Every structure is written in C-alpha cells, then in structure tokens.
Amino acid sequence: MKKYISKLHFLTQDLPNRTHLEQAQLACEAGANWIQYRCMSKSDEEMLAELHPIASVCDDWGATLIITNHVHLVALADIQGVHIEGMDEDLTLIRNQIGEDKTLGASANDFNQIKRHIDNGADYVGCGPFGHTDTKPNDYAHLGLSGYEKIVGELVKSGLNIPLIAVGGIESKNVTSLLATGIYGIAVSGAINNSEDPKQMYKQFHQLIF
C-alpha cells in the first residue's frame, strides 16, 4: 500500500521553553503537513496526555502525525504512523504490530540499511546525518552532499525506489543543494525550533522545497 509522504518533515523535540504541542501548533500554522513527535523525556502517560491535543491540532490542519519509536502508543491516539530510529531494527515485526494502514519510516546511514528497510516494508527512509546535529548526537559519519549522491546512485542502479528523506544538521542554506542530489525530501528539527522565529523559518524551508 503506497502512502503519502511529505517532502518536508517537521520534528518536535524536548525544549525547555516550548512544549511539543506548541511546536506542532506553530508548524501547522506555518503550513506544515507532516509532524513527527519526537519525545525522549516523558512517560507513556505524559506522552499520551500531550499526543491527544497534538493529534487534534494535526487533524484541524490536515497534517500527518508520526511518532518516533514508541510503537505501542500508535494504537492509543490518532497517530498515522511511526518512525523507527534504530537502524538495525526488524521492521517486519513492527509492520505486523501496526498493520498495513499505518505509515512506517526508519532511519539509515548507508545503502545496505536502506535496502533492508525497503525489503522489510518501510514506506520511507530518513537518511543521515547530513552534518553535525545537537538534536540527536550520534557517531555516524556525516554524509554531506557526496554521501547522498552516492546513495541515490546506488538506489537507481539497483532499481530501488523509496522516498529518501535527508536529516541531521540541515539548515535552509543546504536545501537547494540537497534536493539536487536526487533525494525526495528533508526532515528538520533544530534549525526551526531554535530559530528566533520558528514559524517564519518553517515557511522559509517550505518555500525552498515546494
């Protein structure tokens, strides 16, 4: 089943001065149609208390709501899918758990991981990091533009096709060059959430992509 995948994914994050709900509201008001709820600091009960109003905001604005990692919460709120950050996770088990109707995304850093995700039922792949990011510190090599060019080339050569979303340390100045590599879209968190005017920054990314 082919799913709609946006070309611009907005990720909420744990911030001291702005709740996930406030982040989602600002993004939707700026035109976001894809919200990924990425909370690493709360209990299931706390997340559900936040997810229900976020789902209402997304519903009001016609935005898809994806949750990061917490597969068991997908059925407990109006959530359209899940994004799995563990690059070695077995997506077949997760697909069986959430069903065919839900969107399933996964993170990857190289072609082999992407191919495995495709084989195991992913609807899209978040590929990165592009560069340095403080939002999700990790030890994976930065891909840069050449890394995405190589991966896109390997996908084409192998006859594989999946929406490939660049993620990790992306700023608005990188968007045009990244899209030129042949990737499908971009995921952004810190560049928007940490800006002086998050709503305007989202609009800037949107204008560059669409």
From TrEMBL:
One of its GO terms (biological process) is thiamine diphosphate biosynthetic process. It holds the Pfam family TMP-TENI. Residues 13-192 form the Thiamine phosphate synthase/TenI domain. 4-amino-2-methyl-5-(diphosphooxymethyl)pyrimidine binds at residues 107, 136. One of its GO terms (cellular component) is cytoplasm. InterPro entries: Aldolase_TIM, ThiamineP_synth_sf, ThiamineP_synth_TenI, TMP_synthase. Pathway: Cofactor biosynthesis; thiamine diphosphate biosynthesis; thiamine phosphate from 4-amino-2-methyl-5-diphosphomethylpyrimidine and 4-methyl-5-(2-phosphoethyl)-thiazole: step 1/1. Keywords: Magnesium, Metal-binding, Thiamine biosynthesis, Transferase. Its EC number is 2.5.1.3. Gene3D superfamilies: Aldolase class I. The keyword Cell wall biogenesis/degradation does not apply. Its cofactor is Mg(2+). HAMAP family: TMP_synthase. Belongs to the thiamine-phosphate synthase family. Condenses 4-methyl-5-(beta-hydroxyethyl)thiazole monophosphate (THZ-P) and 2-methyl-4-amino-5-hydroxymethyl pyrimidine pyrophosphate (HMP-PP) to form thiamine monophosphate (TMP). This is Thiamine-phosphate synthase. It comes from Pedobacter psychrophilus.
